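User: Design a sequence. Structure:
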């Protein structure tokens, strides 16, 4: 490459440059295009003596790109299906302009650096007498495509490109087979076109994201209303989960990553937030009828929206409390004679809903807390059944298990298991002082009458109790 400055006939030099430009943009005869030769021409034109032509070269390239974009626009509009042909032309254009920008690196430096010269007037922010700001050739090419293809078709041809993009996505949503790769190419071109500006996503948001979200709102608003009117809550929730999953896939197919959260949020608004009351109202029946799959779906959906699960927690706690109180009520005075049924039925109830928390609600701390609240109410309730004084009943139960001649017929390992489980109820007792009083009394009797199952069993039980409330001594 020669760095010597020389006289240049601009028209002759640019004609030579343009011949290679045409080959580059038409992807014809590119083997004969010399990148180094084009780079040398750019350097020579920008350093011509006695006067350089870098602004004139920049404007000539802009004129070429405008003519090319106008031709592309006509070619696109000559087809009924404009999106596939748009995607093809855009891909070629983006490749060609990438090469052109590399070839014009020296020109870019002269143009862009002029903007940074101290004392340059505001008029010099633009190149020559044009309205093109001082930007590199890639940014110029993007601006020209945006103005002469995207916006011209929008304003003069009823926005055919975006209309067909939205129509294709609608067909995809309704289960039709579509070529989503060309749609993705077209949509993401809106991001690329503004990528070298101060607001890189502005065009994408204005032309695609905003109207797309509005269409999602209308589409799923109508669909969710129809489904809820014609389906059971169970069927509705299945549809909601399927739709949200589909839109997640659709997001990755078509949209820029910055849109994903906003799009899904709109889907959630239409399918969940707007119908949350219907799901929440049905939840108590789901729990009562042990419709665990439905409970899981309700949780999965409502946990996606703010305060969505709050009514579920209340219903869950209320239902467990009701079931527990019914158990206590139905036991009547039998609790006084034999504490085993009281303790074991409540332990079984606790186990059941703890497992539901794990399986259905993914051990969500809020649902675990709801179980705890319910059992604290159940264990400390004496209004339902005066005989159900938990500090005394639980102490008597441990006494039954720890006696030598207990009549349960249980093995030592089975007794050990039951004692480890009874501590679950112990933690819910509010009046632990009263429990200590009863426990100490029956423990003393076992020791006095040498009726303990074993010293190891006694020590193990006391250790478990201490684990629950380490400040107490037994």
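Assistant: Done.
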């Amino acid at each position: 490459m020669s760095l010597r400055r020389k006289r240049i006939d601009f028209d002759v030099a640019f004609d030579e440059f343009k011949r290679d430009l045409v080959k580059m943009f038409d992807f014809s005869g590119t083997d004969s295009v010399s990148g180094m030769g084009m780079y040398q021409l750019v350097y020579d034109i920008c350093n011509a003596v006695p006067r350089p032509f870098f602004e004139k070269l920049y404007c000539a390239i802009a004129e070429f790109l405008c003519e090319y974009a106008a031709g592309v626009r006509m070619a696109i509009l000559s087809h009924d299906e404009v999106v596939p042909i748009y995607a093809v032309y855009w891909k070629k254009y983006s490749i060609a302009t990438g090469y052109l920008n590399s070839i014009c690196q020296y020109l870019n430096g002269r143009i862009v650096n002029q903007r940074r010269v101290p004392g340059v007037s505001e008029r010099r922010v633009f190149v020559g007498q044009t309205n093109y700001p001082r930007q590199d050739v890639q940014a110029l090419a993007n601006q020209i495509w945006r103005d002469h293809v995207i916006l011209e078709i929008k304003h003069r041809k009823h926005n055919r490109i975006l209309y067909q993009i939205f129509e294709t996505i609608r067909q995809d949503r309704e289960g039709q087979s579509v070529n989503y790769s060309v749609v993705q190419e077209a949509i993401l071109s809106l991001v690329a076109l503004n990528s070298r500006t101060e607001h890189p996503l502005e065009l994408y948001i204005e032309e695609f994201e905003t109207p797309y979200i509005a269409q999602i709102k209308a589409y799923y608003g109508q669909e969710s209303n129809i489904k809820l009117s014609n389906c059971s809550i169970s069927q509705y929730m299945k549809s909601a989960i399927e739709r949200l999953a589909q839109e997640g896939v659709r997001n990755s197919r078509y949209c820029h990553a910055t849109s994903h959260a906003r799009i899904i949020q709109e889907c959630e608004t239409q399918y969940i937030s707007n119908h949350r009351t219907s799901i929440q109202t049905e939840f108590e029946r789901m729990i009562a009828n042990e419709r665990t799959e439905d409970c899981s779906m309700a949780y999965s959906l409502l946990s996606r929206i703010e305060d969505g699960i709050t009514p579920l927690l209340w219903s869950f706690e209320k239902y467990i409390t009701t079931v527990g109180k019914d158990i206590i009520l139905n036991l009547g005075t039998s609790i006084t004679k034999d504490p085993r049924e009281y303790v074991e039925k409540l332990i079984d109830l606790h186990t059941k809903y703890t497992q539901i928390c794990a399986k259905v609600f993914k051990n969500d701390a809020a649902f675990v807390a709801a179980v705890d609240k319910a059992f604290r109410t159940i264990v400390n309730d004496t209004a339902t059944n005066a005989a159900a004084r938990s500090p005394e009943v639980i102490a008597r139960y441990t006494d039954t298990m720890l006696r030598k001649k207990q009549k349960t017929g249980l093995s030592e390992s089975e007794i050990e298991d039951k004692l480890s489980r009874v501590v679950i109820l112990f933690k819910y007792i509010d009046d632990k002082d009263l429990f200590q009083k009863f426990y100490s009394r029956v423990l003393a009797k076992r020791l006095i009458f040498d009726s303990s199952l074993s010293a190891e069993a006694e020590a193990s039980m006391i250790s478990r109790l201490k684990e629950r409330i380490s400040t107490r001594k037994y």
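The mean pLDDT is 93. The CA atoms of residues 339 and 396 lie 7 Å apart.
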